[in-house]
Amino acid sequence: MAQRRSPDRKTVTNKNKELYIYGNTVRELQVERSPSIERREEGQREYNQRRRKDREYVTSMNRGYVMFLVFAALAVFCAMGYFLMLSAKMSDNRDHVTQLKTKLIDVRAENDDYERRIERSVDIDEVRRIAIEELGMVYPSNDQIVNYKYEESDFVRQYSDVPQE
Residue 113 pLDDT > 80, yes or no? Predict the structure, then answer.
C-alpha cells in the first residue's frame, strides 16, 4: 500500500482513505465516510426513532382506549351500512315512482281515447230530435227566462229558490 505523510501533521493516509492519527491521543482507525453512506445512516437513524416513538405510542394505549376506538369504528361502519341500505331503498322507490308515472300516463291516454270515442258516438242532433219529438221537450219562452245579478263569486251555487222579481 502506498502511504503518504502530511508534512504539517503527524498523520498517514493510504489509498483507501483510512486516516491514522499519531500523537498523544488514543490511536484508532478513522475512516472517511462518503456523503451517501452518511445520508443513508441518517435516514436509518430517523426511521429507528420513528419506530421507537410508534412503539411507545402503541404501548401507551390502555385497554379502555382501544375498546373505545373499536366501538367508535363499529358505530361508523354500522352508520355507513345503514346509509347504503337507505340509499338502495331510495333508488328502488325512485324506480317504482317512475314505473307508476309511466302507468299513469298510459291510463290517462287510454281514458282520453275512450272519452273521444264516446263523444264521437253521440250525435247531438239525434239527441235533440228524440228529446223534442219523442219526449216532448220544448225550448223556454222569453217570459220563462229570469236574469239576476250575483257578484260575489265566479260561479253560482243554488241554496234557495231564485227570486221572482
Answer: yes
Q: What is the secondary structure of 61-77 as a DSSP string? A: --HHHHHHHHHHHHHHH
Taking a C-beta distance cutoff of 8 angstroms, is the pair 27, 20 a contact? yes
CA distance linking residue 130 with residue 136, whole number of Å: 9
Strands in 3-5's sheet, in edge-to-edge order, are 3-5, 11-14, 18-21, 29-31
**Mean pLDDT, residues 157-162:** 71
In the chain, where are the structural domains located? 1-32
- C-alpha cell of 23? 500523537
How far apart are alpha carbons 32 and 38 in whole angstroms?
A: 10
Element (H, E) at 21: strand 18-21
Q: Do 121 and 135 touch, CB atoms closer than 8 A?
A: no
Q: How far apart are CA 127 and CA 120, in angstroms?
A: 13
Q: Is the pLDDT of residue 13 over 80?
A: no
* C-alpha to C-alpha distance for 162 and 147, rounded to whole angstroms: 10
| Alpha carbons 77 and 143: distance in angstroms, whole number | 85
The pLDDT assigned to 110 comes to: 95
CA atoms within 13 A on the CB side of 103: 6
What are 33's three cell numbers? Answer: 465516510
